[in-house]
Known about the structure:
232 residues, rod-shaped, mainly alpha, single chain
Amino acid sequence: MTAPSKWRDETFWSDISEKLVSVALAAAVVLTAWSGFQASKWSGVQANSYAAAGAKRTESIRLSTVAGQQAQIDISLFVDWVSALIGEIDDGKVTLTNAAEYEPVPGTLSGFLFLRMRDEFKPALDAWLATDPINNDDAPGSPFDMDEYRLAAQEQADALRAEAESLSQTARDANQTSDNYVLTGVLFAGVLFFGGIANSLKKMQNRMVVLAIAILILLASAFVLLRFPIEI
């Protein structure tokens, strides 16, 4: 008699299925643990990024408030200086035909106010005076319209606000990555489920179908997992 082919031997296939199940379950356990570890790490990145973004946003608000106060000081001093200067010109205490040639006159209120302008405001004021707004109808309306008028505190506030938004985006991305790892963990749990019941099925055909499903889920999930960023 001819010996039966091993390909038709149910014992052979049973042995193969047990080995495949063992490999699939072992791989699923390891990858599930890795997914959980990475999900936890990315959750930490999310929390840290949100905390850093909150701190920078708070500092940005503080500096923006400081910049607003400085702008109010600049506006107040400028208005008072212009009012004093006009009054002194009318009274003959100050003679001014070309604003570009203005020099503070000692002993006058306008001179007193001019010398007490903030250092950060003076470049814009000097640049505005250089346009001779007295005789030049095309001159900017005030120093605050000049490119030279800059508030360092506001620039820092804007930079911090941009950094805060960048950190918030990092936190959102980290949250999504963490969720993705959690999802792959759920898929690997499916591998454990199908692999666990495969060997309990008596009919070899049913066993191999369930095992094929488990292996397919394992390979697809592992492929997706390899595409995720890693945080150590």
